[in-house]
Amino acid sequence: MKKILIPALLLLMIGWAGYTFLFTADEEHVAQEGTGLKVGDVAPDFELTTLSGEAVKLEDYRGKRVFVNFWATWCPPCREEMPDMQKLYDGTDVEILAVNMTASENSEAGVSKFIDDNSFSFPVPVDPEGHVTDLYEVRAYPTSYLIDSEGRIAHIALGAMDYERMLDETEKMQ
To answer: How many CB atoms are closer than 10 A to CB 30?
Structure first.
């Protein structure tokens, strides 16, 4: 009887541990998916340095509409939407902060070359360690946060946006 009881108890304990691990992990995963940045939240402040060496702090843009775009040079949809971002920057009073995920790039010099070669004039803050990218929970490129004049997230766009959509979404903001 003892020969059967000990292996049965051991098997029961292993099964219980596996069950607990699997179902606890699922509940934690679901709880995590329910959190994060949402439309209406105050946009987290950050401070980065641009390619031109200027300090940029999101808080300094309070009172203005801001288009915060997370991108990388190796990302084709990112590259595709940037001329439309330039058009928005040139033709409206919307501020653009094109945050480059520099940790995923070959070099910051390559990012500068890309910006210069395409004559983009909006500020390009660099995120060399990905802290701001993590703060904004960016999981795909490009991701854009449209922030209203009160500092609240008015729209979150995953993927590339064309000029008409950029204009439409920014016109909805105060």
So the answer is: 9
pTM for this one? 0.78
Domain boundaries, the chain: 1-35, 47-171
Q: Are 144 and 68 in contact (CB under 8 A)?
A: yes
Q: What is the pLDDT of residues 75-91, one digit of tens each?
A: 999 999 999 999 999 99
C-beta separation of 96 from 124 below 8 A: no
Q: Tell me the two tokens of residue 158.
A: 């995953």
| Superfamily of domain 47-171 in the CATH hierarchy | Glutaredoxin (3.40.30.10)
- Per the document, the length of the chain is 174
Beta-sheet strands, E only, within 88-159: 95-100, 125-126, 143-147, 153-158
Question: How much is the CA Rg of the chain, to the nearest whole Å?
Answer: 23
Joined together, the tokens standing for residue 150 give 């009160």
Closest CA to 155 of 165, 171, 142, 169: 169
- Amino acid code (one letter) for 64: K
Compute φ and ψ for 132, nearest 5 degrees. -75, -40
First to last CA, the chain: 76
Side by side, which strands form the sheet with 55-57?
55-57, 47-50, 125-126, 95-100, 66-71, 143-147, 153-158
